[in-house]
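Hi W.,

Here's what went into the run:
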Amino acid sequence: MSSATVFAELVAASNYSFLRGASHPGEMVAQAAALGMTGIGIADRNTVAGVVRAHVALRDLRCEPGGATSGFRLVVGARLVFIDGTPDIVVYPATRHGWGRLTRLLTLGNRRAVKGDCILGLPDLLDHVDDLLLIAMGGDAKLLRVLNEASPGATWLGVTMPRSGKDARHLAGSQALAAEARVPLLATNDALYARPDAHALHDIVTCIREGVTIQSAGKRLAANAERHLKAPGEMARLFRSCPEAIPATQDLLSRIAFTLDDLRYEYPHEPVPEGWEPQGWLEHLVTSAAQAKFPDGLPPRYRETLAEEFGLIRSRNYACYFLTVHDIVRHARSLDPPILCQGRGSAANSLVCYLLGVTPIDPVEEKLLFSRFLSEERDEPPDIDVDFEHERREEIMQYVYARYGRERAGIAATVIHYRPRSTIREVGKALGLTEDITARLAGTIWGHWGDDVPDTRLTEAGFDPANPEIARLRTLAERLLTFPRHLSQHVGGFVLTEGRLDELVPIHNAAMPDRTFIEWDKDDIDALGLMKVDVLALGMLTAIRKSFDLMRQHGLGDFVLATVPREDPATYAMLQKGDSIGAFQVESRAQIAMLPRMKPACLYDLVIQVAIVRPGPIQGGMVHPYLRRRNGEEAVDLPGSRDNPDELREVLQKTLGVPLFQEQAMKLAIVAAGFTPAEADGLRRAMATFRNPGTIHRYRQQLIDGMVMRGYQPAFAERCFEQIKGFGEYGFPESHAQAFAWLAYVSSWLKCHYPAVFTCALLNSQPMGFYAPAQLVRDAREHGVEARPIDVNASNWDNTLEGKQALRLGLRQIGGFREEWAKALGAARKQAPIATMEDAARRAGLPARALHLLADADALGSLGQNRREAGWEARRVPPAQLPLFAYALAPELGKEPDAALPRITPSEDVVADYQTQRLSLRGHPMQFLRDSFAVQGVVDCASANAARDGAQVRVAGIVLIRQRPGKGNAIFITIEDETGIVNALLWTRDLERQRRVVMAARLMVIQGEIQRSKEGVIHLIVVSVADASDMLTRLTDTSHMPLDPLPMKGDEVRHAVHPRSSQSAHRHPRNLRILPRSRDFH
Amino acid sequence: MGNALRLMAVDGAAHALGLAPGMALADARARCPALMTLPVDPEADARELARLISAMARFTPMVSADPPNGIILDITGCAHLFGGEAGLVRQAVALAAYTCRPALADNAAAARALARHGGRNTNVRVLPVAALDLPDEALAALRRAGLHTIGDLARRPMQPLAARFGAETVLKLRHILGEVASPIAPHRTLPPNRLEARLTEPVIRTEDALEVIEDLLVQAAREMEARKLGGRRFVATFCRSDNARRRLMVETGHPVRDPAIVLRLLRERIETLADPLDPGFGFDTIGLTIPRAEPLPSRQIGLGDEQEEGADSLAALIDRLGVRLGTDRVRRIVPCDRHLPERAQALEPAMSTQTGIWPVAEHPPRPPMMFDPPQPIEVIAEVPDGPPHRFRWRCKLHEVRLYEGPERIAAEWWRRKGGEGARKAGLTRDYYRIEDACGRRYWIFRHGLYDETPQPRWYLHGLFA
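Here's what came out:
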């Protein structure tokens, strides 16, 4: 056992061999290096999804001080698992060409399979065997001969010593086989995890894979914990009787010249016209745009910035990237009608992007820095995300495929990690815990925990954290939480190449037809310096575009995103009142509550507003300091280091000393804590992808020590770190906030000046945003918009504008109605107005279902029929007959005895409105209950909101929203009645007492205390809650007596109340769903 | 329902909390985190309903199921036997021992509607239209038309109703209103396998009594063959003329109906009785019941299938031994799917188990019988996991000449508190097959690796024949 044993583990799987490997790629690399191996080969099952992580881990390892990794090598390949019974073969590309063969081979297998599988046979390998080194993990002489013939001198037979009891026999057999086939033996441990202590976790993932519990898994589990990485000396001892198998690993390693750094990336050349160099073309485009924008010549500041940016782009060779983004944006705008789009991301801070029209934000004006700290020091491509109208993004994606070809364009993968809920469920199931316990545990998780499971969560669920079963579940779930689960496609990140994409990375079929995605996610793509363009969908862009269209149609002006009047005081005045329902980003309850405090008066205030009212900054405790400083109640205190007391001024001045954006965090780390740009970038990564192992905690000490050493107070340093950590998860780079703030401004401007237009566009873009149509329409009516009901003779599919201030509801508001019916109706109306229901059925060819829906939605008002009469008549047409016969019969339906239906009551009408359209223009269900509430001393929302600070009130309303944001100390409930809404706040400590009522009530009576902030934000602090949902049944079922409660006796599960009938099996006894569901947390 | 788990049924306490069937489990838990749930088992529900129907036969022969959870009793002419209608209802509810919602009406459809939709109402006309069991769409249409109760419908002409909701709706309505008869199809339970011979002359000799039993067995075999059944439990009852009675029971591992087999088992049973069968003044009634029967298709008479006969004769042997020694004492070794050798097999009562399929051994051979507990031995072996050279067992020294191993088997970490932690899983074993100088083969193991414990002990776990 000499320390000089030279060995490399070449058959090592990572946890990207999903549910088989039990260690991260980085852990495998680190452990192999620590054990003194000369190298490691990462080969996952039919995939190379994990190899970039291993590559990055090794790169980081080399950066670390004392990383004695000189000479340690990582080779990357895949373990091919065949469907034709061939034993597994581990393959390593020896050259860049070989890598291309491997990725094409895997692509071939992936594309044959439905999602997630890879179907390969031995002949496929033989077709792609150039420059591949093969390790057969078993097999007979015939197979080895075939392999050796296909790839002479590049085949090994892998042998293991798994301590199965028959190792010696097996080894002797392999030796004979190798001699016969003339292939060398190669020693390996076929490792599945880095250290033996991963054994338990490996057993658990085996159970999850097999769908069994640990108690019943039996021999599906590994018999022992031997498949970890073993030190070279130990391997030499195990292979005493076959010593030549150890140096064989070195032979193989030395044959591999390829590393992932060899993947040279070339930008596609499509956007550059013949005869132009990319840089020249870019400069030409930008300069012409600049001339158009500044006909009198570029101001000096702009000229300087532009020159600097051009220099940077040239030195990094990024011209093609900007041209590609420009090409996509240009295409979107060239369509008829054009697709609205807007860029954001680090590179979107650039003047180049502004001049090319990719972004609407003038970086010189807004003093944005072209990501000096993001791009200059690290060799990473720029990042631009482009948002498109959500209804039309697919057109852009298909354009990208068409322009660059499917073999050159693919969507990036997203590595789906285990989520706390599913992890608890699956690990619990594998440990044999009942669904009941795991569901209870999983059910207590609000949002997610980050990367650990705090005791309080367990105690909250009624479990003792010290209980061994629970402790075990928690330990294992915490470890599994960091694991990748499967690959999925990224929402819209395209990777484009000049050469074949499938020779760069394997391609998979996505779940959607006509979509393919590559095996690497955005971090991998970043790490290898590949280029990605994010083509994202944004609902608000659709709504804004529809608004602009409507304005144009109705002569209200002709605008595009960039030409909306800036810094409009009326718009800010509206926002300062918290009047922002429907506006982008600032419409949530927390935002509305913040608006009167922030009093935004310029675009940059909106930028901060958008960035600050997010879970991260709220949890990081940044909101209140910022507000106090903004209102002048607290001095802007910017501590400095001993040498330069002003050094933070530049970094934090804009945000009054509170770090709000990613860029600021990085700059803070560099300026105040002496980070190198690479370290700061590591910090950024840790913030952005907090799930990645080796997380942010590593940087904590460094940051605090660094700051203290340079003369900052430890408390200040600690606070800075907490703030950075707090917003890391949800943090915005400044350019994102800028882009969002601009859309927030544009949408607010529309809302302020053209409420009818804006509401109409919002309704036509549903589902999107925070509020249901009912609240949007109500808000519009409060702003003087006349809303007109759906009518078969006036409504189109979409909601429409009648005149300039009237909104006609469209047929799309009717739940279940179809667009083609609406079109047919429109066509029929062109000839002559619809006169009768039979007319609608016959001329528009509407089926019975459409007529029922129209009648129930009371859309036949212009025919002189109310809802009840129309519904009764609509159902008379025999439903199950051929239309021909139906027409033939229709006139003969003739007379029938008068059913003498009872007259419809207003409350029934309102309820039916809600049931069919989720809104009512007639009234609010609460108004019919007002009298009975008034008798009980329950006030309406308007009175509650008008009450003085500290007043005790009881108020009732329909529950719109239940939320438990952030850390979950408080639950926000929004209730609504005919006079408005009340925002109530319930402390979590008071929840348990009345949990059922809080969670179940659809109509809630809240008793509490009115709290008014000095900015006029009103909250009702809940003391107690009562469920008055039963009152809702009174609105319709007036004539039928409610059921008595059942005489229940048992509290055993055995005494069960069954559904009352099979048909109502999924309905509540109060089965009339009178109102749309509230938006709730779980 | 989709991916969401839903509540299928709730008990009284849950109902009182506002939970209801159809609700998503996640919603229910958000309201009531301490909710206890059991997976739905429709088959068990159906079985339980069938059992209740059988039980209800004591009130009336006309009982029929109203799945999934109702029972309809036609009590015409029966009520007076149970203290009137109210008394019958009370007794029936008590017998069911469930939360019940009883209702009485002139016809089955009305009773059903009242039970399912009526609360404490007795008048079908105030029932909601939901009692018609129409699709949700139709119910919504009726409500939209302002027609909420059965009475609302009954007051109006039927023709418009039929034109909109179909003739069957009108028929249902008429059933409930009692305008059209709604008969039930009663459930019939098969009589149990019970045979009895009343003898004019009491038999004194046991042998004669057994002949009577044989006759009964032949008769039972015919009936069972017709129903494709075989008995698993046979009870013979011997009633003496002085009213003393004696019951003898035999069980078999497989369903049988061959009288000879059962008779032989009964003879065995009688022979092994500690308290012999005493005919006294003779048995005047001899009964045979077969309380447990299972499907047994008739089999083609064999053309010499030895294997089957072998299995049959082994089964017969197990039955006979079981009768003599007690069924619990006749056991066989069955394989278990585990790595640890002592858990990889188990002894189970032979009568209730099938011959297990022993897995094709992936691991090296193991001895069929193992020492329990393993016997400690002293071993001289190479460290860390080299072969043993010699060992001492029962004071005798054995030289190891040949060995194979180690076969490494990890402890079952999940059975230990904290076993999922590093080095907490328990001791790993290394098994070796060894042969000593005399050619005897042993199966020994070292309990613990050297990095788990400083001084691992060795044990002998079995001998190879």
